[in-house]
Amino acid sequence: xxxxxxxxxxxxxxxxxxxxxxxxxxxxxxxxxxxxxxxxxxxxxxxxxxxxxxxxxxxxxxxxxxxxxxxxxxxxxxxxxxxxxxxxxxxxxxxxxxxxxxxxxxxxxxxxxxxxxxxxxxxxxxxxxxxxxxxxxxxxxxxxxxxxxxxxxxxxxxxxxxxxxxxxxxxxxxxxxxxxxxxxxxxxxxxxxxxxxxxxxxxxxxxxxxxxxxxxxxxxxxxxxxxxxxxxxxxxxxxxxxxxxxxxxxxxxxxxxxxxxxxxxxxxxxxxxxxxxxxxxxxxxxxxxxxxxxxxxxxxxxxxxxxxxxxxxxxxxxxxxxxxxxxxxxxxxxxxx
Length: 337
What we know:
By secondary structure, the protein is α/β, with parallel strands linked by helices. It has helices at residues 44-50, 119-123, 126-139, 161-173, 184-193, 205-211, 229-235, 255-260, 271-274, 281-295, 312-323; strands spanning 2-9, 19-22, 32-42, 53-61, 67-74, 86-89, 102-106, 110-112, 152-156, 176-180, 197-199, 217-222, 236-244, 263-266, 303-307, 330-334. β9, α4 (161-173) and β10 (176-180) form a beta-alpha-beta unit.
């Protein structure tokens, strides 16, 4: 089968950072399904794993954690899917990734592809949808489907992949959304996604949010980095909650959190698959729910750029786009040459 792999961990402009390869097609066992990959998406986690380091792989390594495709075979313990089913998923950080023609993935972290989307549109969604869903509904315990009507959320990093889907999920939950963006094109994008208010994360967040009439907000999601920690602590309401997807070495003073009895949550969407948690199947369920929301017009794909075909050259270009820090929405690669 065709694949895009790496041997060395190099700068993305190095032509050896990704290589076109031919690998053996794997066979499913247990609860694994074998998926013929039709489209893939690139996320910041991909660029972090590919980033230069003093390491050489003995055999070609395939990374990538966003895919849409069709089931071609199933393991003997599979109950959720059958050959021919169209699926989408983010996969498992501890296993070979989606930058290959055929991929093994545990059925419990796979959802049925939205029927209203093509494979490229669907591939833009899984990792970010899982992250945003878990951040809001599992970590912050926000009630979905209108259950949080009138509550407020500040989404720091609104125009990125996670922020783009998070705004939509927040609106579905009934939240008043304040999203951050700093450029005219990103401001326009977060408004398209449904943000009620937009503030500039390159300026003082506290004064901007309070100028909108919010002394405090009920929930805060930090979807870019932790430089805004002090502002988040100042803005969170007493007994409110902050969720972050960014690990950091920056100082994180906790005094303000303590006196407000506020909570801090970490979201890492690979935790369930990495640790084989008893509730792994929740990712199957939430992806299926997201697919229903898409098919009912409640959620839209965040795809903004498609590259064809899936090969080393285009994957390098996608990584360059993500590493630039200027991405709006998601970049997808589709089809094999």
